[in-house]
Amino acid sequence: MELLKWELQKIWQGGIVAAIALLGVLYYFLFPVFYIDYFCNGPSAQAQFDLSAAWVERFGTTIEPEELPQIKEQLTEEIALFETRAAAIPSAAEAGLTDYSAFLSFQSSYYDAVSEDGGQADMDTERLIHLVMNNTNYYTITSLEQFLQGYGDQTEPSRQDLLDIGYTDSMIRRLGALAQPDLRSGYLPIGVMSSTNEYARDLAVWAVLSTVLLLSPTLVRDRLRRTRALQWTSRRGRRVLTAQMGAAALSALMLLVINAALYALPFLSKGPLAFRDCRLYSLWGGSVPWFNWTYGTYLLVLMGLILALSMTAAALTVFLSQYSANYVAMLLKSLPLFVILGPLAGAWILDAPFFFRPLRREIGGGVWVCAGGEAVLMAALLSLGLGLCILSCARQRRRTL
Hints:
Layout: H1 2-11, H2 14-30, H3 33-37, H4 43-59, H5 68-87, H6 90-94, H7 100-116, H8 123-134, H9 138-152, H10 159-164, H11 169-177, H12 190-224, H13 227-231, H14 235-238, H15 240-268, H16 295-321, H17 327-349, H18 373-398
Helix pairs in contact: 1-15, 2-12, 4-9, 5-9, 12-15, 12-16, 12-17, 15-16, 16-17, 16-18
């Protein structure tokens, strides 16, 4: 235990911790903060969020057919509110746009005329339309209409249509399983899922980078100070590598807990946990999940993937640092390690994991990721890291004094 504490003290040096903290602040304001500032990116996404949050308290996690009349009544009330607010806008009242149907007709006629005129916009008309849209509950009404349309039209495309767009047999079977009535009435907002996945992806990249930065200097420092030569003189000293790897794993876990806690505060302040019991498959649309978990369970799954990624980064960093004679050599190993585990593997694994998605985000779909493909890749990477560390410890113990 004393040896483990000593190795932890060697890892958590004040200078490197301060550097990681400073870099972490810069990284946060360069990347993840965007998905906090624009958690619901746009007025339509915000309207979806507000409606869904109110429905969770009112109806629970699903809206059953017998509750649908209440949604239609809400739409009627929102249209009446629109007309009241539109009448309070002088330019809208002057143009006769105080009726919702009249506004839709005016908007549609204008956009049709612009399309026929080769895209030549009239800025005064554009300004008037957006003035009405932004100063009324227009986006709430359109979101309600979208929801009701999606609820009423739940017909499944034919098998041939799905095959034509590249869906596999397993994907088609999964769609069929999700066609059950009790699975088709959830309403988790698209914006929540989009921001969640993007935020988790940035956290995964940072978790890898901070882990590599924290652990890279330790064994190299021992080598430069000839500590390894002193340890090599006794059998107990040779077992220090096991303690170092244990300290590295514990440090990676501690660092992830700190990172996750700091990242969670601004994220949770946006209120996503209101949907913790909602299923991933949503009437608002979006990708189809391979596993129809609740949103709360999905958050735990994402954290599990990030934890596995951090452990992999820790294992491979410690393994590579054994074979680095100086800091420059370790830097040359750390950079490609970070790129492979962070922006490449980590970002890919956390790119809407466990949903229908192509192997590459390209037009036409291409090759699709199988169910649980992200977990398989993550398990392979973690097994590689742990296997190399175990092999290193075993080889060192077998060597003669």
